[in-house]
Amino acid sequence: MILTEKELNLCISGQLGDPHELLGLHPLGTSKGVVARAIDPSADELLIINHENGNQTLLNKIHPDGFFEGVIKDTNRIFAYSFKSVRGVQELEWVDPFSFQPSIHKERLFKFSAGSDRRPFEKLGSFPCFQNGVEGVSFVLWAPSAKSVHLVGDFNEWRFNSLPMRSLGNSGCREIFVPGAKVGQKYKYRVLGFDNVLREKTDPFGLRFEPPPGNASFIENRDFSISEVEKRDYKNPRTLPISIYEMHLGSWKHKSGELRSLSYLELADELPKYLKEMGFTHVEFLPLSEYPYGPSWGYQVTGFYAPTHRYGTPEEFQVLVNALKEEGIGVIIDWVPAHFPSDEFALGRFDGTCLFEHEDPRQGKHAEWDTLIFNYGRSEVRSFLIGSAISWLDRFGVDGFRVDAVASMLYLDYGRSQGQWIPNKLGGKENLEAIQFIKEFNQAVHEEYPDTVTIAEESTAFPKITQSPSNNGLGFDFKWNMGWMHDVLTYFQSGSTSRSEIHDKLTFGATYQDSENFIQAFSHDEVVHGKGSLANKMGMRNENDRLINLRALLAFQWTWPGKKTLFMGGEIGQWKEWDYDNQLDWELLNFPLHSGLQQMVADLNHLYKNHHAWSKYDHQRDKFRWIDCNDKDGQTLSYLRFGERPEETILVACNFSDQLRHRDWGCPHSGEWRVIFDSDSPQYGGEGAAGATDFYTQPHHKDSFDNALSFSVSRWSVRILILKS
Domain ends where: 465, 480, 495? Predict the structure, then answer.
């Protein structure tokens, strides 16, 4: 035996750190021949075949677990070869993975290591390819502190020690080319960590995964088929109508008679038509990146580059995206760089060190969520995360990202008490590394795809969320208006007798509405964990009254400055709190108040898209003006939305009391005005109690205006008027 006992034990035990130095074909020196070594636990005998002269040499089985070694004495140089395994009566000829040079040069990994690689998925992961005319798959993994990494999969019968990966030097990456491996086969990595713990890990750059508990990665075809549908021009989304239908894909609708979620392909048949009829401009999917734990709704991501297996394949997800875009619906996905779960098979302590996360739990763990926090200061982690976002744009042509839990990224003391967090280098609580990462993310996606929309879920008053990084902002296009949402819901949750006391909950939002580019959102977060549905939040005892108030709430949302987001079920007056295991209660549409509510939302969307004053000037203070914000006793509210011309002006009159209100309303332009929307209209299940819809101004001073309109607004309702041209 030429191999030392120590080297042999490393090979057999799956602890080989530099396999290409030992395995394969190696010269022994002048006139001594060459030595061949291979691991094949299934072989009874193993021969090496010299492709130059056809000679076959039987190798010695020097370990019963399948380690073979032999010397070929008739040559002193490396030659083209293959191995032949004899397994009982079967013979199998195969190409040695250790006969190939690295499939990637470490210089190609420099940008990844520097934190500036926007497409690391072009270098890391699994890649079907040809090497020296041989078809197979190249695997590249980042695991800098691992003592050894072995590839296991369908292609080697999951033998733990047959495919050790070579180190690519100071890049921290490991590599191996496997001849004969094919698209569709599953694989994992067996990582012997720096801490001497052996862990079986899925590929961080995996493009498709099998269901839990397997969690293996699939080898995927790299010929990405980007949507052929031409992307719409959203280069200035702040001036465009954006009305977003937020949804959990698995609980929107189930397959009739099968008690299962619709697949990507089934959704492609139904969802685009529904959203188009409803007038929504975008759909926002709760996280679709692969995740193991269903009750997390996708917010505990383990596969940042892969659509979840739950509804089909990545190719089928592409069909859904294309179908939506064909109907003019933009696709936004929830993207979760704020944290990741500690599942053993995923990113946590990947190479025996805290590779993706911080070592210190005061920096690296969200105790309240039992999840880990990315180390945003590590260059490779920034490349990994930004690459994830770019991959969804490249591969599927999505239109934007809603970034979850931004506040948890911005503050080191988020969810922590004194002594449970570490101040930054300046002594403050801001996470300077996360802030820089967010800026880099927004800059990257907007430079690569200028039409991309990015949205921050951020619940604090952190400044300049929606200003550009060049102006020291974070670079998001929009921010969810959490303060407005909480205030307005507080108001509508109160009964009619107490609303006068909290009138400021409706008006306070106007004091800061131009401080950021806001989206007014009633999201999934407000209809879970015992909070009740939107309909059941309305502070009325009678169910009909709750639905009437919900009509008023949504009409107020649609007319208030800012883009719109509504979680599924809100448009039909869902009574039950959202349940991710069950579909929406679509049977409610058999009742007039529910079907009327749905029709109202559709009409609001279509009006919103057709009247530019609603969207073009969402974030300009001078395009909004109160008529009367002080009528707390009457529980009315009225305001104007201005366009460029008088006929583009929109007058909104709200009555949130339990009585019809008739009064004079100040008006900026004289002439005839007509009602284009009334939430109390009979077509919405209302009574139409306000009566007339066409009015002429009267020349007397009212609400600081020289003209007035005299008309009624039904109880718990909103009317919208425009100047007739």
Answer: 480
Looking at the structure, tell me whether residues 213 and 285 fall in a common domain.
no
Catalytic (active site) residue 545: no
CB 533 within 8 A of CB 567: no
Amino acid at 55: N
Q: How many Cβ atoms are within 10 Å of 211's Cβ, its own excluded?
A: 12
Q: 213 preceded by cis ω (within 30°)? A: yes
**Residue 390 contacts residue 122 (beta carbons within 8 Å):** no
Q: Note whether 214 and 251 are same-domain residues.
A: no
Q: Based on the structure, what is the number of domains in the chain?
A: 4
Question: Do 444 and 314 belong to one domain?
Answer: yes
Domain with 13 in it:
5-99
Is 208:306 a contact under the CB 8 Å cutoff? yes
Average pLDDT over residues 24-29: 89
**568 within domain boundaries:** no
Q: Which of 69, 97, 222, 85 is nearest to 153 (CA)?
A: 97
Distances (CA, A) of 206 to 121, 188, 303: 9, 10, 7
Cα 394 versus chain centre, distance: 14
Neighbouring-strand partners of residue 401: 333, 454
Which of the following is catalytic: 175, 290, 380, 457? 457
Rounded CA gap, 551 and 559, in Å? 12
The number of beta carbons lying within 10 Å of the beta carbon of residue 430 is: 15
Check 290, 404, 603, 628 and give the catalytic one: 404
- Run of H or E residues at 53: none
Element (H, E) at 636: strand 636-641
Write the CB contacts of 158 (distance below 8 Å, at least 6 apart in sequence): 152
pLDDT tens per residue, range 462-473: 999 999 999 999
Residue type, 469: P
What's at 109, amino acid-wise? L
AA letter at 14: G
* Upper half-sphere CA count for residue 524 (Cβ side, 13 Å): 24
Q: What is the DSSP letter of 626?
A: E
Which tokens hold the place of 693? 């819809």
Give domain status of residue 557, yes or no.
Answer: no
Render 123-149 in DSSP notation, one character per residue. TSEEEEEEETTEEEEEEEEE-TT-SEE
Partnered with residue 438 across adjacent β-strands are none
In whole angstroms, give the CA distance from residue 151 to residue 163: 5
Residues 334 and 462 in one domain: yes
CA dist., res. 309 & res. 321, Å (int): 16
Q: What is the DSSP string of 673-690?
A: EEEEEETT-GGGT---TT
Give the full edge-to-edge strand order of the sheet including 125-131.
125-131, 134-142, 173-179, 166-167
The sign of the dihedral angle between the CA atoms of 568, 572, 573, 574 is negative
The DSSP bridge partners found for residue 366 are: 371
Q: What is the pLDDT of residues 504-522, one digit of tens each?
A: 999 999 999 989 999 999 9
Task: Give the whole-angstrom CA distance, residue 124 versus residue 122.
Answer: 6
User: Is residue 199, in this structure, part of any structural domain at all?
Assistant: yes
pLDDT tens string 591-617: 999 999 999 999 999 999 998 888 888
Per the listing, tokens 């707390």 go with 632
Identify whether 404 is a catalytic site residue: yes
541-572 pLDDT tens trace: 999 999 999 999 999 999 999 999 999 999 99
The answer to whether residues 89 and 140 belong to one domain is no
Please tell me what DSSP assigns to residue 12: H
User: Does residue 613 form part of some domain?
Assistant: no
The answer on 242 and 115 residing in a single domain is no
For the residues of 288-330, what is the DSSP string, one character each? -EE-S-GGGTT-S-SEEEEE-GGG--HHHHHHHHHHHHHTT-E
User: Is residue 159 located within the same domain as residue 72?
Assistant: no
* Domain limit, last residue, from 480, 510, 537: 480
At residue 93, the pLDDT reads: 93
Residues 144 and 80 in one domain: no
Distance between first and last Cα of the chain: 98
